[in-house]
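Reviewers of the previous submission asked for a worked example of the structure-prediction workflow described in the proposal, so we include one complete record here. The input consisted solely of the amino acid sequence. No template or homolog information was supplied to the procedure at any stage.
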Amino acid sequence: MKKIIEKIQDSKSFLITAHMNLEGDALGSELAAYMLLKKLKKNVTIYNNDPTPQIYKFLPYSRVIKNSLDNGRFDVALVLDCSDSSRTGKVKDSLARAKCIVNIDHHTSNTCFGDLNWINANAGSTSQMLYKICDKFKIMDKKIALCLYTGIFTDTGNFTYANVDKETHRIVSNLMKYNLHPHRIYETIHSRCTPLELSFIGKIISSLKFDSDKRICWATISKWKDDDYDLTEVVFSVMRLLKDAEVFLLFKRVDKNRTRINFRSRLRVDVNRIAKFFGGGGHKRASGTTLNDSLAVAEKKVISFVKRYTNGLKYKSK
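From that input alone, the workflow returned the following structure tokens.
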């Protein structure tokens, strides 16, 4: 972090980006970094592969984010919440035009692709890491606090995941000094389901599958549409109500021979290791991958592996 702070101080122009399929932590950390750098009188551009989801457009300065960029060079490319440079999508070509790539992330699977890498897999979110940089510069206001709070809130599952610790709550306590309204943030992000979407979720829940020990729970979805409001975490939040279940999976048909798999787990299973085996990655408790297989083939292949993997663990106590 010290070297990154020095690089920020010594540089004039910055490109900020994050992973594809933007969510709260990616956008919260990007926009907080944007405001921090602007206060330091730097030239800053945010360039993302994907449009900003409607539910996050309440965040300050979300309108400045670009989805196309003219050729140009930057002193620093600041890549946030992204485990691999390929996950930036079309932005990757622009990274090569930066004199220095700074990689700040909390994914266990990060490939350390930057010239400067600050990877903290124990941090609950990248926004939590960005808070420390803002704190070092003694720069904070209500708008930055709102972005950081939103990033921390979403990436910790509303403060319910195992990545929440006393440091998370200490930082949130400091952010709350800026007159934030958590209930409004929650409602803006989560109170979005239509009756049709709730019916869709009900069909998924009613078709859940289990292994013989009821430790693994999964669903296969033949028609999944990644709309502006992604229902993935809503489904997982219901699945996590299951007593004794350890691993949760969603198999989503992308097309005839392509399947997206999302993994979630409780304390005993590192789903990042499972996802990496299948060419993906993420966090110990939340990961994903995409297979060039049909829905049925992907389900059989992955569930067979997960059963063998979890049987080997024998569900030792924490």
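The domain at 195-313 is CATH 3.10.310.30 (Diaminopimelate Epimerase; Chain A, domain 1). We consider this example representative of the routine output the project will generate in years two and three.
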